[in-house]
Amino acid sequence: MQQRTSIARLVGLATLLGSGFLWIKMGLDGLSPVQIVLGRLALGSLVLLALVRSRGLSLPRDAGTWAHLFVAALFANALPYLLYGVGEQSVDSSVAGVLNATTPLWAVTLGLAAGTERHLTRRRGLGLVLGFVGAVVVLGPWHGGASGTVGGSLACLGAASSFGFGFVYMGRHLVTRGIPPLVLSASQLAAATGITAVATPVIGRQPVSLSPHVVVALLVLGVFGTGIAYALNYRLIHDEGPTVTSTVTYLIPVFAVLLGFVVLGEPLSPRLAVGTAVVLAGVALVQRSRPVRLRVRG
């Protein structure tokens, strides 16, 4: 029973995270990318802050921690969420979901540059090369796609690299502070909400069209795909450990591709299938034998 419950939670988390790219695509029918980010962050923050309060926990109070939280919030939440919205204006949600899977590759690459990753074995080096080759296959620049499509794909890769930088930064400056993961997640989302709220009047003043499916997409993305996904990730890590939870990395692009095909009618091209398989093979080689704690993304 315990194993079935864990599997159900893992599949549930992968569904929530993988469907995020679908909800972003639907939200773009009436909202700008920055407006979607503000909505999802505000809703996700409310969910996590309510959980923090219900458990009698409190947010950090020292300025140093909050300074690091704002940097992490920029690179691991506000900026990548915005870039995915920008990217999905011209590329399919399934492509965005697959390119999101390169995040561990960026984390290792940037970790090596920052000195937090000290060992590059042949296996991990091969994984990096293989994973990035898979990303190039997904982009398919030799097919002569429109510049907007290439630009959108690059925006999604930029989002994945931003996640990677954010995770390296969090590992160096936040994880070691002994802050409960739920408090850390709630605080970081609150900081990201503040950053986006300041940016919205400047870059997010486009007209808003709140049709029913746009409202539903934003609510699901914020409450379930952000807030509850973070909480479920925290619960899985607590109950099963980071090794089991890290399996979700391989499931997110699968759900993103399937939902894009079933709900939005996005094509399942051989190039996308091959590229996805190559990216995931690269990620599998790069992963440590004992993976570090997974942070929620997408």
Description of the structure:
By secondary structure, the protein is mainly α. The protein has one domain. Helix 4 (93-100) runs parallel beside helix 7. The radius of gyration is 18 Å and the shape is globular. The chain has helices spanning 2-27, 33-54, 63-87, 93-100, 103-114, 122-139, 147-173, 181-203, 212-240, 242-245, 248-264, 270-286. It starts with a helix and ends in a 12-residue tail after the last helix. The chain is built from twelve helices and no strands. The longest helix is centred in the last third of the chain and has 29 residues, at 212-240.
Radius of gyration: 18 Å
Q: Strand share of the residues?
A: under 5%
> Structural class, please?
mainly alpha
Counting DSSP E segments of at least 2 residues, the number of strands comes to 0
Mean pLDDT: 89
Low-pLDDT windows of residues: 289-296
Order of helices and strands: HHHHHHHHHHHH
Main beta-sheet strand count, sense and barrel state = none
Shape annotation: globular
Helix content percent band = over 70%
Q: Specify the number of helices.
A: 12
Terminus-to-terminus distance:
30 Å
The domain tally reads 1
